[in-house]
Request: fold
Amino acid sequence: MKLWGGRFTKETDALVHNFNASISYDQKFYRQDIKGSIAHVLMLEKQGILTEKEREDIVNGLDGILGDLDANLLLIDGSQEDIHSFVEANLIERIGETGKKLHTGRSRNDQVALDMKLYVRDETVLVNQLLKTLLNELYQLMCKHTDTFMPGFTHLQKAQPVTLAHHLGAYFEMFKRDRGRLCDIYARMNQCPLGAGALAGTTYPLDRDYTAALLDFDGPTFNSMDSVSDRDYIIELLSALSTVMMHLSRFCEEIIIWNTNEYRFVELDDAYSTGSSIMPQKKNPDIAELIRGKTGRVYGALISILTTMKGLPLAYNKDMQEDKELTFDAIDTVKGCIALFTGMLSTMRFCRDTMEASAKNGFTNATDAADYLVNHGVAFRDAHGVIGQLVLICIEKNCSLDALPLDEYKKICPVFEADIYDAISMRTCVEKRNTIGAPGIQAMEAVLKACGEYLGAQNLLDAIHKEDCRKK
Ligand code: ARG
Reply:
């Protein structure tokens, strides 16, 4: 039996039923659906629309459904159109006539808008927590590696020496911004659409402030047409999740490069690598590659929902049902990727010696050699030219700037003295860079202190609904 069967004289075509139905995927938010219904019913009683007994029966019925679904005692089959219809039909089956009053003053349009928002809100909190775990791991590694030297790159060409702590610190900043975006989105979406009805509110004296408060919203939404047709928060979340994936993907790309035979900067743990069916020697970074690969899938979700929404007139249109599968898939994908990435990172071995040796060759100290001349009164542009010539000589002689004899230096520019070698040693190159945000050990320590404080503090999402989400 359809919820809306009254004005129809024929059964729905079977293909139409399947095409139209969303129950195969919207069952994912049955908890949110029931929670929303309970809040609605409490409000209906408070407003005198339901009696105390009716409220009690309905809430008990809904609690029973929730318990049975959680315990797998109640199976969701495909006969109902969506989870809203399923819960209502089951309630009526359990408690009889009173169950038919559940949907008073409500439409599936504001109901689904609420369920999706509650779901997305809960998941935003969970993603925030996963990112915090990743940041904690990064922070531990940064603290360990403030004097692990490695080459910094531009154009994937060795540029200047940095430390591993500094390189990892770049990702710390990215994931920190990602968490900030989640908090912003949460705060912006935190108004309750329940009570908007189909599109134009209802004639019942609903107390929307009350339902909003029961469901931990900051308040009710202000326009009923917008309430049932707003999917901005999904677009914002998918955009933020795409950015998380972009960050993970860049990190994975670096790990894949670092893990090659040519680099050997890192070695992935056996538990996070896979072998080849034909080449016995292989140990492949499949996890990093898969995370990089899944990035496309999350971007796809964002583009898909943007496209779905672009031509929709106000207010609700069935097109909006298409928001679900892709959002669920993107959220699950991102959660899985962050967790896997954190495990891969925490078990990975960093090869300090190889990194340091690599930083030492490739003329990563050329800028510092030019700065030496500047400190001795040579104009930077001239100094740049002098060091360029010296690099050419080194390439010819197949040696580093550190190994080039002083007389070769002096031949090109008499300003050089024996202290040039100290000035361009890798330790000096890094340690001299002590402005805030630079890799110098002192500068890095100040940043690490701030990172530690950041992790010790709670953000908006650490503080909210932690318990609710844990239950899942
Ligand atoms: N399954 C629908 C969706 O996800 C629920 C809302 C149905 N509303 C309607 N007017 N048909 O959007």
User: Anything to note?
Assistant: The chain has a mean pLDDT of 95.
